[in-house]
């Protein structure tokens, strides 16, 4: 083909044809994204599906952590209950032994009574809600 034989009209047609081919190529590339904003398009459905998948994964992860935390909490509660029962049993045994001791009704020496009261006050400082107000003794009633 001899390029010199094209007339100005031929050159215009050649340029127009090339522009048309370029426009068709651009249109073909843009066609997929042309309708992507519509809710029923494949891109929109894919985006919704991916969002739903991410939400489901996050929810499953949160539920897994929640169940693990509940299991740990149950274990700690059981441990505390066992400790409470052990302490109550030991306390009840000590109270029974103290009441059945041969010298249970004998009065205490004044120094020992002061030491015991001091120990009681210190223990009440650790757990004030468990301490009952002491009944006034004979010395305090004067």
Give a verbal description of the structure.
By secondary structure, the chain is mostly helical. It contains 3 helices and no strands. The protein has helices spanning 8-34, 42-99, 110-126. The longest helix is centred in the middle third of the chain and has 58 residues, at 42-99. It is rod-shaped. It starts with 7 loop residues before the first helix and ends in a 16-residue tail after the last helix.
Share in helix: over 70%
Indicate the mean pLDDT: 83
Oligomer description: single chain
Radius of gyration (Å): 45 Å
Low-confidence runs of at least 5 consecutive residues: 138-142
Query: How would a crystallographer describe the biggest sheet?
Result: none
Beta-strand content: under 5%
Order of helices and strands: HHH
Helix and strand composition category: mainly alpha
Query: How many strands in all?
Result: 0
Apparent shape: rod-shaped
Please count the helical segments: 3
Terminal-residue CA separation: 134 Å
